[in-house]
C-alpha cells in the first residue's frame, strides 16, 4: 500500500480536513438532436455562457455539464447548425433536451433521413475500411520502421489539487498563503481553483536501432519538487508517477495508462470493439486529412473515445489524435482523461510524434469534492533518421543518468527546455517549501503518515507497523507487539530492525533483532542491492507459513476457521549476503540455524512413540533470481516490485548440514519458480506462477515441503484457500497458480451490473506431488509420525495419484476496494475438517 499512499497522500489529507459545501452547484444534463431528422448529434459544444466551463456531447448526443457556482444560461454550438441559448435554473440539478436547427446559410445541401435509426455495421462501412488501411500500414509509419533514430525529449509533469472550493482556500492555515493557489483554466476539469503540489522536469537524448534492436536513453537533466522525506518518499513518488503516466504510442495494440491496458483505436482488433465514423475531411493541405471519430461499442470497457486524423493517401499515417474515456467506463477514481498527440512531417516524408499530452483528474466522487489532477507533457525535437550510430552509444545500461543531471541550474533549463513553462508553474518549486513549513500542515502529515503508511516516523527511527501491535491465536492468546526500524537519517550503511512481543496466555516473550550493512553505500532497499545481514528471531509461526507470504501477527489475520491449534516456537539464527546486478540478475547466499519446538495441538512423535521436544537444523542456501526489465516502487525504506509482462525466474538450492552447530539431518532441497503476467487486451490479464521442488535425503515431516494453506477468511493469492494448515506434505511437487482479472469485460454488458462497475475474477490452483517411501513414516522407521487430531483422525497427508485442486469465481471492485471469491475445493474432500466451499475476501486498491 505504500506506493498508493504516496500517490494519494495529498488528496487524502485534504479529504480529511475539508467539509465541502455544494449548495451553489449547477448541474445540467440532457440530449442534443437534429430538429429535422431527430438523430442525436455527437461532439456538440456546450458551455455555460460567458465562462470557460464546457463539454461536448458523446456519440449518443448526451451531455452533462457542472459548475461549482450559480449559472443561468447555456449555449449549444455545432458546425452547420444555429447556435442555441437556453435559460436554466441557477444552483440546481436539471435536465434539458435540445433540438438544433440546421443553418441553411451554412449548408449547401440538407438531406432528410426518415425511418428507423440505421444499425451500426462494420460491413460496407467506409470508416471501418479506412481504419483497416491504417492498421495495415502501421509498421511503415511507426518510428521502429527506420534503421536508426535519435531525438531529444523534454518531459514536464505537473500535479495539483483541483476543484478546490473557496471555503477551503480561505481556511485559516492558508490565510497568508493565497499565492499558493492558481486559477484553473481547463474546461475539462470542474471548479476554478488549483493548488499545485508537485512538478518534475526531465531532458534526455534517445537513440534507437532496428537491427540489432537496441535502445538507449541518456538523461541530461532532471528536476523535481523535494518534499520532507520524513513524510513523503520523493523517489517512490517519482517512480509511481512514471508508472502511471507512461509514453503514449498509438501504434501499439495496447496503451498503458494509469496502470491499465487500453486497446488502441488502431490496434489489430480495434474494429471488433470500436465504432468508427468519418466526421470531416480537411482539404486545405496536401495530402488531405480525414477526421475519424471513434467510440467504444460498450462504454464500460477499457477503451478510448475521441478522434484521430489520418492522411488520405497511400500511407494512411496518423497526423494527430485527441481522445479520452467515456464517463461510464469501468475505471476507478478517474473523473476525466484527455490525451492529445501531435505529429509533424519529417524529411523522410513520414510523420513523427512531436508532442504528447496526457491529463487525468482523479477524485473519490465523479464530480463532487476536491480532486487530484496530473498532467504530463512530452515534447520531441531534433529527429535524425537512418544516420550511423556508433556501437559505443548502446553500451552499458539502457538508461543512463548523467552524474550532474540533478544539479542543472536555472540558466540551463531556460536554454534547453523544448516547451514553454509558465511563471506560475516555476513558482511551484518554491511554494511547496512554504507549504511544508506550515505547522498545521506538519501536524496533519504526521497523522496521515501513521494511518496510511503504518509507521510513526521519529527521524532516525520509526515505530510500526501498527497492524501488528495487537493480534491473537489459540496458543499465545492475546499477543502484544511493539517494534520498528532505523531509517537512512541514522545511517546509509547501517540498518537495524527489532520488535518485542508477549503472549498473555503462554506467558512467553518473543523478539527479533537484525543488523544490515550496505556494501555499496546505498540504501539496502535501493537497486542494485549489495548488503550483508545478520539476524536472530525467537517467535511463533504456523508450520508451512513463510513470512514473505503471510504476516501472521497481522490483527486482521487472527480470525481463522476450523481447528487452528498448531504452532511452532522457533529460534532462527541467520546470516545472508545479497548481491544484485544492473541486468536484474541477483543471488542470495545464506546460512540458517533453526531450532523448532511444537506447541498447542502439534506434537513430534518418533517411531518409538516418544515425544521429541526440539528439532534443530543447520543449512546453507543459494538463491538465483533473474527478473529482466523489472521495475520497482522504490522508496527510502521499502521496495515493491511492479507486476508486468516480463517473467521472473527463481532457483533456490538448500543443503542441510548434519553435525554443524547441532544440525541433525543431511538433505538437499531444489526449488524453482516462474512468475509472469499475461495481458490479454480486452479480456484483462492473468498472473501465472509455476513452481516445483524436490527434496533429496531422509527427513522427518517438519523438514518436508509443507504446502501453503490458509485458514483465515482473507483470500490469499499464493496459498491454497481451502487447505488446512499442515494438511499436505511432499518431498517432490509441481504446482500452477492462475489468477485472472477480466476487468469487467462481461459485467459491462449487463445493464443492471454495468453501473456498479464490478469486475470478474477467476482463479485455478493445482498441486501435484507425493512422498517417497524413504520419507513416509508408514513405510520407514526413524521418522516422526504424521500429526493426528485429538480424536485419532489423520491430520497430515501425502498427496496421492491425483493433484490437489481448487478454483474460485469472484467479484472485484466492490466499493472500489473489495474482492469477494466463492472458492471450491475439487478433491480430497474426505479428509477431516475440510470444506468443499468457502467465501473469502481481499482488499485490493486498483484503478
From TrEMBL:
InterPro entries: CarboxyPept-like_regulatory, DUF5686
Signal peptide limits: 1-23
Keyword list, A-Z: Signal
Protein name (Swiss-Prot/TrEMBL): DUF5686 and carboxypeptidase-like regulatory domain-containing protein
Amino acid at each position: 500500500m505504500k506506493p498508493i499512499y504516496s500517490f494519494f497522500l495529498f488528496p487524502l489529507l485534504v479529504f480529511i480536513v475539508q467539509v465541502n459545501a455544494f449548495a451553489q452547484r449547477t448541474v445540467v444534463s440532457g440530449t442534443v438532436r437534429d430538429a429535422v431528422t431527430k438523430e442525436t448529434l455527437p461532439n456538440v459544444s456546450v458551455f455555460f455562457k460567458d465562462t470557460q466551463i464546457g463539454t461536448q456531447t458523446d456519440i449518443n448526443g448526451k451531455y452533462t455539464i457542472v459548475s461549482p457556482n450559480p449559472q443561468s444560461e447555456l449555449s449549444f454550438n455545432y458546425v452547420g447548425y444555429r447556435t442555441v441559448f437556453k435559460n436554466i435554473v441557477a444552483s440546481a440539478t436539471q435536465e434539458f433536451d435540445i433540438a438544433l436547427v440546421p443553418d441553411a446559410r451554412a449548408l449547401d445541401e440538407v438531406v432528410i433521413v426518415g425511418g428507423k435509426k440505421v444499425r451500426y455495421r462494420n460491413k460496407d462501412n467506409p470508416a471501418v475500411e479506412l481504419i483497416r488501411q491504417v492498421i495495415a500500414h502501421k509498421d511503415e509509419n511507426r518510428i521502429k520502421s527506420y534503421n536508426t533514430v535519435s531525438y531529444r525529449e523534454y518531459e514536464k509533469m505537473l500535479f495539483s489539487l483541483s476543484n478546490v472550493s473557496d471555503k477551503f482556500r480561505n481556511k485559516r492555515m492558508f490565510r497568508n498563503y493565497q499565492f499558493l493557489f492558481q486559477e484553473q483554466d481547463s474546461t475539462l476539469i470542474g471548479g476554478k481553483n488549483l493548488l499545485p503540489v508537485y512538478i518534475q522536469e526531465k531532458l534526455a537524448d534517445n537513440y534507437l536501432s532496428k537491427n540489432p534492436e537496441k535502445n538507449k536513453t541518456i538523461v541530461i537533466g532532471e528536476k523535481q519538487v523535494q518534499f520532507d522525506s520524513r513524510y513523503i518518499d520523493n523517489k517512490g513518488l517519482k517512480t509511481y508517477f512514471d508508472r502511471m503516466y507512461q509514453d503514449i504510442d498509438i501504434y501499439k495494440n495496447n496503451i498503458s495508462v494509469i496502470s491499465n491496458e487500453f486497446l488502441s483505436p488502431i490496434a489489430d482488433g480495434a474494429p471488433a470493439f470500436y465504432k468508427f465514423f468519418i466526421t470531416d475531411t480537411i482539404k486545405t493541405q496536401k495530402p488531405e486529412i480525414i477526421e475519424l471519430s471513434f467510440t467504444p461499442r460498450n462504454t464500460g470497457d477499457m477503451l478510448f473515445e475521441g478522434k484521430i486524423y489520418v492522411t488520405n493517401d497511400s500511407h494512411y499515417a496518423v497526423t494527430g489524435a485527441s481522445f479520452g474515456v467515456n464517463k461510464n467506463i469501468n475505471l476507478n477514481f478517474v473523473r476525466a482523461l484527455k490525451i492529445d498527440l501531435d505529429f509533424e512531417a519529417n524529411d523522410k516524408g513520414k510523420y513523427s510524434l512531436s508532442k504528447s499530452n496526457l491529463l487525468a483528474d482523479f477524485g473519490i466522487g465523479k464530480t463532487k469534492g476536491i480532486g487530484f489532477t496530473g498532467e504530463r507533457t512530452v515534447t520531441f525535437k531534433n529527429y535524425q533518421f537512418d544516420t550511423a550510430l556508433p556501437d559505443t552509444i548502446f553500451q552499458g545500461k539502457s538508461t543512463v543518468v548523467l552524474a550532474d543531471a540533478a544539479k542543472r541550474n536555472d540558466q540551463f533549463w531556460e536554454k534547453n527546455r523544448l516547451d514553454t513553462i509558465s511563471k506560475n508553474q516555476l513558482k511551484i518549486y518554491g511554494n511547496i517549501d512554504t507549504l511544508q513549513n506550515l505547522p498545521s500542515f506538519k501536524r496533519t502529515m504526521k497523522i496521515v503518515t501513521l494511518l496510511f503508511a503504518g509507521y510513526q516516523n521519529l527521524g532516525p527511527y520509526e515505530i510500526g507497523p501498527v497492524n501488528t501491535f495487537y493480534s491473537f491465536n489459540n496458543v499465545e492468546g492475546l499477543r502484544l507487539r511493539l517494534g520498528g526500524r532505523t531509517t537512512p537519517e541514522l545511517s546509509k550503511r547501517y540498518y537495524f530492525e527489532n520488535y518485542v512481543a508477549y503472549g498473555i496466555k503462554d506467558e512467553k516473550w518473543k523478539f527479533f533483532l537484525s543488523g544490515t550493512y550496505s556494501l555499496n553505500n546505498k540504501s539496502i532497499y535501493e537497486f542494485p542491492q549489495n548488503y550483508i545481514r545478520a539476524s536472530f528471531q525467537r517467535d511463533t509461526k504456523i508450520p508451512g507459513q513463510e513470512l514473505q507470504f503471510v504476516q501472521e501477527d497481522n490483527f486482521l489475520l487472527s480470525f481463522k476457521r476450523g481447528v487452528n491449534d498448531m504452532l511452532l516456537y522457533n529460534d532462527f539464527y541467520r546470516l545472508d549476503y545479497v548481491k544484485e546486478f544492473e541486468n536484474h540478475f541477483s543471488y542470495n547466499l545464506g546460512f540458517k540455524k533453526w531450532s523448532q519446538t511444537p506447541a498447542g495441538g502439534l506434537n513430534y512423535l518418533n517411531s518409538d512413540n516418544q515425544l521429541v521436544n526440539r528439532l534443530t537444523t543447520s543449512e546453507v542456501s543459494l538463491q538465483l533470481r533473474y527478473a529482466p526489465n523489472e521495475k520497482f516502487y522504490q522508496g527510502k525504506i521499502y521496495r515493491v516490485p511492479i507486476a508486468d509482462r516480463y517473467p521472473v525466474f527463481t532457483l533456490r538450492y538448500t543443503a542441510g548440514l548434519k553435525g554443524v552447530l547441532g544440525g541433525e539431518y543431511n538433505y538437499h532441497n531444489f526449488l524453482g519458480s516462474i512468475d509472469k503476467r499475461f495481458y490479454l487486451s480486452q479480456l484483462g490479464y492473468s498472473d501465472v506462477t509455476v513452481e516445483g521442488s524436490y527434496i533429496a535425503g531422509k527427513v522427518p515431516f517438519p523438514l518436508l515441503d509443507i504446502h501453503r494453506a490458509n485458514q483465515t477468511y482473507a483470500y490469499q493469492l499464493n496459498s491454497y484457500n481451502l487447505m488446512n494448515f499442515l494438511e499436505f506434505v511432499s518431498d517432490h511437487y509441481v504446482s500452477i497458480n492462475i489468477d485472472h482479472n477480466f476487468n469487467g469485460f462481461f459485467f459491462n454488458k449487463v445493464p443492471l451490473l454495468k453501473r456498479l462497475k464490478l469486475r470478474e475474477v477467476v482463479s485455478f490452483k493445482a498441486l501435484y506431488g507425493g512422498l517417497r517411501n524413504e520419507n513416509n513414516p508408514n513405510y520407514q522407521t526413524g521418522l516422526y509420525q504424521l500429526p493426528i487430531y485429538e480424536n485419532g483422525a489423520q491430520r497430515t497427508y501425502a498427496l496421492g495419484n491425483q493433484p490437489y485442486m481448487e478454483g474460485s469465481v469472484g467479484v472485484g471492485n466492490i466499493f472500489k476496494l473489495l474482492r469477494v471469491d466463492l472458492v471450491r475445493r475439487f478433491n480430497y474432500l474426505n479428509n477431516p475438517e475440510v470444506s468443499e466451499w468457502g467465501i473469502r475476501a481481499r482488499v485490493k486498491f486498483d484503478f
